[in-house]
Specification:
single chain, 293 residues, alpha+beta, Double Stranded RNA Binding Domain, three-stranded antiparallel sheet, 21 strands, elongated
Length: 293
């Protein structure tokens, strides 16, 4: 690293200038730090696993082994291994969101949340699936997608042993057991188990259909409906019955079909107790009762 002599500081010491960053270094400690940035020298070693450029970085890292969390939130007593993590956490109590998107003025608690959000504007998708070259804006989206190829479903429902690719999908599923529907429509008070279902429902009030088929310009209120519709053009039927190898364009069609094999009929008429394999068959049947009134 090239360092040149600078002016004398107030304490009489001569300062030095880092020519790479053109930064004024007023003491030997700062100079040492900058030398390590350029040289890659890492003199501080964790006895268990890694080496670090600075003693403070080593000290912070060692807490991952010791479990030490000396920084405590005064409001909820949650503890953290470093002061910056505590400061970020305190924003969950204060509601402070100091990081603002310059394009849409949306604000965030954390700088990394802002960076991720900015990709929704830039369209940047730096994470590439090695199997199908599909790209993603976020690393966790890629990880979730990769499970489509591997078939991995590591999250299991404790009540019915059904498995899921993500913990968020498991949480939504668990509400089918608990009956919890925390998302409420402000216009008609109808409740939903997940936010995406609420957003789709709200479009029935607004009439908004933002998802358009590129082949026939038909529009839809939710992306899943568009995806299902596009299969009428492509002929794609990715869902296969394991018993008879019949294929379907949607997982819901497959589930209904599987009831033919299992004999399951979960939809019951309240007037005559007749049972059906799907809700549409029940609705058709209920018209018979209404017409005879």
């Amino acid at each position: 690293m090239k360092v040149s002599e600078g002016k004398k500081s107030q304490n009489g010491r001569k300062s030095q200038v880092c020519e790479v960053y053109n930064k004024l270094l007023t003491d030997s400690i700062h100079l040492q730090k900058y030398e390590r940035i350029h040289s890659g020298k890492k003199p501080y070693e964790c006895k268990q696993c890694k080496i670090f450029s600075y003693s403070c970085s080593l000290k912070l890292h060692e807490r991952t082994h010791s479990g030490e969390k000396p920084y405590e939130c005064k409001q909820c007593t949650k503890t953290f291994s470093c002061s910056s993590s505590l400061r970020s956490h305190e924003r969950t109590h204060s509601g402070e969101k100091p990081y603002e998107c310059k394009q849409c003025t949306k604000t965030f608690r954390f700088s990394n949340s802002l960076k991720l959000h900015e990709r929704t504007h830039s369209g940047e998708k730096p994470y590439v699936c090695k199997l199908c070259t599909k790209t993603f804006s976020f690393s966790n989206s890629l990880k979730l997608h990769e499970r489509v190829h591997s078939g991995e479903k590591p999250y299991e429902c404790k009540q019915c042993t059904k498995t899921f690719r993500s913990c968020s999908h498991l949480r939504v599923h668990e509400r089918t057991h608990s009956g919890e529907k925390p998302y409420e429509c402000k216009q008609c008070t109808k409740t939903f188990i997940c936010s995406s279902s609420l957003h789709s429902h709200e479009r029935t009030h607004s009439g908004e259909k933002p998802y358009e088929c590129k082949q026939c310009t038909k529009t839809f209120s939710c992306s899943s409906s568009l995806k299902l519709h596009e299969r009428t053009h492509s002929g794609e039927k990715p869902y296969e019955c394991k018993q008879c190898s019949k294929t379907f364009s949607s997982s819901s069609y497959l589930r209904v079909h599987e009831r033919i094999h299992s004999g399951e009929k979960p939809y019951e008429c309240k007037q005559c107790t007749k049972i059906f394999i799907c809700s549409s068959s029940l609705r058709s049947h209920e018209r018979i009762h209404r017409e005879t009134l």
